[in-house]
Write a structure and sequence with these properties.
single chain, mainly alpha
Length: about 130
């Protein structure tokens, strides 16, 4: 899913959360939008290039298998889940991550139907990625 779609989609929950959590509701964006920063991290490690524009193009166009997007793996989600019981900050970030994952899942289903068999290029667990690499 395009970063702008994630950002625009995340604004609605932030507006809904604002009356309850005030400025803490903007933390939701960390989980729902900035979680995709791991795509840039993967690009930087793989290509050794700092360009955000090049990273965006490469991530959009590449179909390289077994990419490690560290903020998208189940181990990171479990960590954030438990941290959410420690402080509200982590809880709001985790809620944003769940929202992000729902959007990614909807996009994945759309791609599956549109391309008839198009599969995700990322690994879903860090341990699986370690075994393969």
């Amino acid at each position: 899913m395009l970063p702008i779609v994630h950002l625009l989609s995340s604004i609605i929950p932030v507006i809904l959360l604002f009356p309850i959590y005030k400025y803490w509701s903007f933390v939701f964006l960390i989980g729902s939008w900035l979680i995709d920063f791991d795509h840039y991290i993967w690009y930087f490690i793989y290509k050794k290039d700092f360009s955000i524009k090049n990273a965006y193009r490469w991530c959009r166009d590449t179909h390289m298998k077994d990419q490690l997007h560290i903020f998208h793996v189940i181990e990171f989600w479990i960590l954030m889940f438990f941290l959410s019981f420690i402080h509200i900050l982590f809880g709001i970030v985790f809620a944003g991550m769940v929202f992000h994952l729902i959007l990614d899942f909807i996009d994945y289903i759309y791609e599956e139907v549109r391309y008839k068999g198009h599969k995700s290029t990322r690994t879903f667990t860090f341990s699986t990625w370690l075994r393969r690499n």
